[in-house]
């Protein structure tokens, strides 16, 4: 890995750097730690300096993507040296310099398929590892989001699909980015893709588009208003069209996912957490464009999967919640049964049926609550089904279903029915009064009892049940007592004196009947209202006192049994608290040690920088009298005398005489490539002045002579033209800085770029000040300046 990184850094040929990048990519899956630690800075330089070569850029992007991938590769599963979060660690290193993100964003403009795809995948990996940090960086980058949005229009589906995944991660939980994406015509582009893919019958791309829409709308009132005013609610309607052949063939798993996502979008628009104005306007539009009708059709269709049916019930509930027109529409929907029944009744039948899934029963309860929410007429219609009526009572009503569920042997049916009945009374004093005077009979021939009395009997039954069963009954009937709270403390008005109502219902017989009988009868004897209420309350108090007293003794015995266990738990908790205190103290000590280590590391890093600078100065000092002659052909059986003679001959040619006694040492540098004929000669002189004068004369010779310095000026007698280059011998760091400075001069039109005594200098023009290049970051800053 180190050798490959060195090739990328120092190779002058583009093919060499490209081959090295290809090899790094191949090794990055198996040796991720080594490639990331040694090659990340080099790969970032490739992205910046080799933009002209798409293939090299592609290899660099793929290598970075492998290094920062959030997933573990198969090649490194058995390598214990690779941490699980290694991708996140390298991501943190990569984004310390925000300019690196700008480099990747700029590559999105490249039309080359591999470069654009690799750039999108790299951004996706970065967002997966550090979502909040990347979101903040992209938010301040000019045109950053716009460049990503442009990719949705790419005709190559692979890039478009990868861009969808990128935008899903980018827009998650960031309102500012969500607004920018929405106002970049995101909804138009997404609905166009959904339409092209076939709406709900499309593939996973439709699901990705809907997930992106959901991100843009969730908890973002600005985008919801934009969605509503842009007439996008109408465009959702084709998603809910279910042809008859689909019902017969069944729903594919992908269609289930697509419709589920669209239902979540509808619920987001009418979520109770939104403002009342937004909810009301969205509900009205959904009713006007036929979306509510389409949802009800799915509700009443056959063959709908249970998950979709549950979510549709929730969606219908929130679509009608608090909107009287929509609630009336739902109340008038008829189920395609024989005989036809209202959809509300069919839903309540599912709620009190213990064989139905729990999630479905909860959804029906929520939908029924929404149907009654702020609607006194619907509440009145519910209570009215329990009152005597001259109309035909052969059909099943919602009130009868709730009463049946209230006294069912199923605990959940008790709870569901109690909650549903309670919502029929909320903020409606008139219906409280009506329901208070309804009497029920649990057995044929028995005298009717009040609703309150019958619920009290259910509480008494808990003493005969096992503990878990009793706990469930108590929890369910706790809600029933909330109904009583609405009933007991509701004063009876004088209008109620005109009639007394009783409803006789045989619960056991009702369970075996498809059409319930008319349970409501008129009680003939009338008592004074005050006597009736006092007797009922007195009997209730006495009975409750006796029952509670009988429950105290077994409860005390149970407490005695569990007391040792409680003490043991208390002792265990005390031990845990002591252990936590010890761990907390240990944690504080570790924090202090970590802070001390971090401070020491910072000091060490500063000292290392000082030492590196000193070493660089020492290296420059040892080379201040040296120069290099590059691209010198080799001579058979070459000796140092031959090399000295070449230098003397060259000095005579440029008119700067160097004697053999001026040369303290001379040697030829071995090239990394064994097949190269020409290489570099290093000449060490005993005088810096002689070296400086010689280099000056060579530059003057090349500037003034028509024929530049070549092999024949060294004494070679050959007809082949071989150019020769003379320069100072720089350190490794100096050579790298000189390379970057020349690239800076070429890119930013600097007129002068030279070296002197091992240091690198640039100058914009004759009147500009001279700049000493000391680091690569300084070159990057000069590159960014206008």
TrEMBL record:
<feature type="compositionally biased region" description="Polar residues">
    <location>
        <begin position="513"/>
        <end position="523"/>
    </location>
</feature>
<dbReference type="GO" id="GO:0006888">
    <property type="term" value="P:endoplasmic reticulum to Golgi vesicle-mediated transport"/>
</dbReference>
<dbReference type="Pfam" id="PF04869">
    <property type="entry name" value="Uso1_p115_head"/>
</dbReference>
<dbReference type="GO" id="GO:0000139">
    <property type="term" value="C:Golgi membrane"/>
</dbReference>
<dbReference type="GO" id="GO:0006886">
    <property type="term" value="P:intracellular protein transport"/>
</dbReference>
<protein>
    <submittedName>
        <fullName>Uncharacterized protein</fullName>
    </submittedName>
</protein>
<keyword id="KW-0175">Coiled coil</keyword>
<dbReference type="GO" id="GO:0045056">
    <property type="term" value="P:transcytosis"/>
</dbReference>
<dbReference type="GO" id="GO:0048211">
    <property type="term" value="P:Golgi vesicle docking"/>
</dbReference>
<feature type="coiled-coil region">
    <location>
        <begin position="566"/>
        <end position="607"/>
    </location>
</feature>
<dbReference type="InterPro" id="IPR016024">
    <property type="entry name" value="ARM-type_fold"/>
</dbReference>
<dbReference type="InterPro" id="IPR006953">
    <property type="entry name" value="Vesicle_Uso1_P115_head"/>
</dbReference>
<dbReference type="GO" id="GO:0005795">
    <property type="term" value="C:Golgi stack"/>
</dbReference>
<dbReference type="InterPro" id="IPR041209">
    <property type="entry name" value="P115_Arm_rpt"/>
</dbReference>
<dbReference type="InterPro" id="IPR057251">
    <property type="entry name" value="FP_C"/>
</dbReference>
<dbReference type="GO" id="GO:0005783">
    <property type="term" value="C:endoplasmic reticulum"/>
</dbReference>
<dbReference type="InterPro" id="IPR024095">
    <property type="entry name" value="Vesicle_P115"/>
</dbReference>
<feature type="domain" description="Vesicle tethering protein Uso1/P115-like head">
    <location>
        <begin position="341"/>
        <end position="470"/>
    </location>
</feature>
<feature type="region of interest" description="Disordered">
    <location>
        <begin position="508"/>
        <end position="531"/>
    </location>
</feature>
<feature type="domain" description="FP protein C-terminal">
    <location>
        <begin position="731"/>
        <end position="782"/>
    </location>
</feature>
<dbReference type="Pfam" id="PF18770">
    <property type="entry name" value="Arm_vescicular"/>
</dbReference>
<dbReference type="InterPro" id="IPR011989">
    <property type="entry name" value="ARM-like"/>
</dbReference>
<keyword id="KW-0333">Golgi apparatus</keyword>
<dbReference type="Pfam" id="PF25298">
    <property type="entry name" value="Baculo_FP_2nd"/>
</dbReference>
<dbReference type="GO" id="GO:0048280">
    <property type="term" value="P:vesicle fusion with Golgi apparatus"/>
</dbReference>
<dbReference type="GO" id="GO:0012507">
    <property type="term" value="C:ER to Golgi transport vesicle membrane"/>
</dbReference>
């Amino acid at each position: 890995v180190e050798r490959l990184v060195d090739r990328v850094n120092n190779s002058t040929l583009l093919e060499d750097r490209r081959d090295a990048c290809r090899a790094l990519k191949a090794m990055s899956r198996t040796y991720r730690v080594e490639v990331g630690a040694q090659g990340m800075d080099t790969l970032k330089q490739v992205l910046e300096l080799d933009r002209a070569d798409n293939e090299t850029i592609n290899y660099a992007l793929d290598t970075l993507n492998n290094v920062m991938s959030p997933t573990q590769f198969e090649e490194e599963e058995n390598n214990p040296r690779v941490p699980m979060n290694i991708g996140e660690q390298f991501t943190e290193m990569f984004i310390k310099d925000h300019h690196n993100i700008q480099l990747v964003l700029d590559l999105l403009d490249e039309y080359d398929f591999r470069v654009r795809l690799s750039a999108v995948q790299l951004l996706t990996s970065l967002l997966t590892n550090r979502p909040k940090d990347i979101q903040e960086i992209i938010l301040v980058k000019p045109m950053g989001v716009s460049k990503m949005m442009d990719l949705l229009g790419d005709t190559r589906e692979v890039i478009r699909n990868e861009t969808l995944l990128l935008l899903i991660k980018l827009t998650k939980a960031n309102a500012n980015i969500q607004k920018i994406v929405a106002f970049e015509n995101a909804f138009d582009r997404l609905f166009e893709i959904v339409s092209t893919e076939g709406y709900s019958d499309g593939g996973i791309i439709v699901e990705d588009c809907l997930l992106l829409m959901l991100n843009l709308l969730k908890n973002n009132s600005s985008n919801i208003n934009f969605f509503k005013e842009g007439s996008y609610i109408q465009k959702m309607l084709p998603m809910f069209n279910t042809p008859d052949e689909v019902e017969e063939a069944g729903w594919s798993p992908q269609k289930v996912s697509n419709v589920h996502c669209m239902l979540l979008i509808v619920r987001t628009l009418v979520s109770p957490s939104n403002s009342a104005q937004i909810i009301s306007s969205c509900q009205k539009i959904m009713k006007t464009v036929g979306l509510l009708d389409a949802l009800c059709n799915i509700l009443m269709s056959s063959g709908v999967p249970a998950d979709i049916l549950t979510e549709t019930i929730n969606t219908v509930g929130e679509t009608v919640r608090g909107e009287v027109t929509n609630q009336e529409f739902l109340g008038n929907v008829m189920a395609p049964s024989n005989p036809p029944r209202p959809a509300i009744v069919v839903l309540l039948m599912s709620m009190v049926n213990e064989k139905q899934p729990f999630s479905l029963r909860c959804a029906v309860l929520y939908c029924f609550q929404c149907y009654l929410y702020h609607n006194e007429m619907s509440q009145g219609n519910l209570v009215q089904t329990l009152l005597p009526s001259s109309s035909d009572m052969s059909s099943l009503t919602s009130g009868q279903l709730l009463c049946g569920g209230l006294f069912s042997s199923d605990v959940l049916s008790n709870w569901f029915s109690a909650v549903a009945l309670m919502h029929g009374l909320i903020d409606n004093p008139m219906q409280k009064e009506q329901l208070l005077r309804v009497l029920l009979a649990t057995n044929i021939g028995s005298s009717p009892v009040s609703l309150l009395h019958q619920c009290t009997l259910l509480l008494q039954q808990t003493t005969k049940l096992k503990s878990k069963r009793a706990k469930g009954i108590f929890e369910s009937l706790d809600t029933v007592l909330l109904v009583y709270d609405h009933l007991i403390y509701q004063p009876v008005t004088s209008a109620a004196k005109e009639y007394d109502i009783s409803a006789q219902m045989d619960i056991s017989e009702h369970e075996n009947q498809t059409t319930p009988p008319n349970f409501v009868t008129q009680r003939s004897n009338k008592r004074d209202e005050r006597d009736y209420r006092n007797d009922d309350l007195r009997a209730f108090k006495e009975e409750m006192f006796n029952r509670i007293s009988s429950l105290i003794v077994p409860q005390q015995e149970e407490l005695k049994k569990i007391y040792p266990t409680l003490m043991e738990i208390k002792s265990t908790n005390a031990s845990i608290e002591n252990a936590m205190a010890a761990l907390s103290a240990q944690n504080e000590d570790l924090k202090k040690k970590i802070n001390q280590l971090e401070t020491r590391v910072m000091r060490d890093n500063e000292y290392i920088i000082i030492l590196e600078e000193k070493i660089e100065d020492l290296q420059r000092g040892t080379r201040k009298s040296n120069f290099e002659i590059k691209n010198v052909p080799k001579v058979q059986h070459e000796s140092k005398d031959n090399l000295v003679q070449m230098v003397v001959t060259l000095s005579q040619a440029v008119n700067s005489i160097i004697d053999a006694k001026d040369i303290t040492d001379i040697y030829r540098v071995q090239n990394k490539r064994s097949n190269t004929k020409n290489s570099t000669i290093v000449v060490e002189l005993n005088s810096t002045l002689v070296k400086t004068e010689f280099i000056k004369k060579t530059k003057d010779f090349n500037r003034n002579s028509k024929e530049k310095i070549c092999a024949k000026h060294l004494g070679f007698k050959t007809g082949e033209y071989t150019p020769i280059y003379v320069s100072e011998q720089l350190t490794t760091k100096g050579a790298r800085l000189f390379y970057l400075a020349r690239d800076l001069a070429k890119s930013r039109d600097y007129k002068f770029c030279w070296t002197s005594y091992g240091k690198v200098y640039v100058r914009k023009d004759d009147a500009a000040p001279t700049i000493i290049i000391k680091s690569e970051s300084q070159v990057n800053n000069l590159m960014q300046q206008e």
